[in-house]
Amino acid sequence: MQITEIRVRLVPDNGQRLKAYCTVTLDSEFVVRDLKIIEGNNGLFVAMPSRKLADRCNKCGAKNHLRARFCNECGAKLADNRILRDESGKPKLNIDIAHPIDSQCRQRFEHSVIEAFHKELQESKQPGYKPKAEDNLSDLSLLSQHDTPD
């Protein structure tokens, strides 16, 4: 697997831990969007794209976030013990959508993304800097041309 492009969109420095969003292209064929570069206690790290976990109401079947105490649809009280926990007992409320399989791959991936972040950060300090577009909406027209049913 080769990382063929990394697009970084800096977040204005407002004292928050989130420093940038990025999109990574693999082998010029596969795109992963919504990676986050975050300032952690031990420096920068890359958070993979994730989604909130949810479950369904026993009464009406509607989807609810795991922290919800009552169903968003019918108002029924939801069980208190629905939250999954990891090995250390911390609540597991999100799950990665895409992620490296092993630590060696994660290190290579993270190193490349953080290097691209530093490069973009340096470029942003130059006069006349214009941020690169995160996503090209013309890509959507290509998708519709190739994926329409016959």
Your description of this structure?
- With 150 residues, the protein is α+β, with helices and mostly antiparallel strands.
- The chain has 2 domains: 1-49 and 98-150, Stage V sporulation protein G (Arylsulfatase, C-terminal domain, 2-Layer Sandwich); 51-96, no CATH class.
- 21% of the residues lie in helices and 33% in strands.
- A hairpin with a 5-residue loop joins strand 8 and strand 9.
Give the key terms:
150 residues, alpha+beta, Arylsulfatase, C-terminal domain, 2 domains, four-stranded antiparallel beta sheet, two-stranded antiparallel ribbon, 10 strands, 33% strand, disordered C terminus
Shape: elongated
Strand-residue proportion: 25-35%
What string gives the helices and strands in order? EEEEEEEEEEHH
Helical residue percent?
A: 10-25%
CATH level-two architecture of the largest domain: 2-Layer Sandwich
- Give the biggest sheet: 4 strands, antiparallel
The CATH topology of the largest domain is given as Arylsulfatase, C-terminal domain
Quick recap:
The chain has 150 residues and is an alpha+beta fold.
SSE order and pairing:
Layout: E1 3-10, E2 18-26, E3 30-40, E4 43-47, E5 50-52, E6 54-56, E7 63-65, E8 84-85, E9 91-92, E10 94-96, H1 103-124, H2 138-146
Antiparallel strand pairs: 1-2, 2-3, 3-4, 5-10, 6-7, 8-9
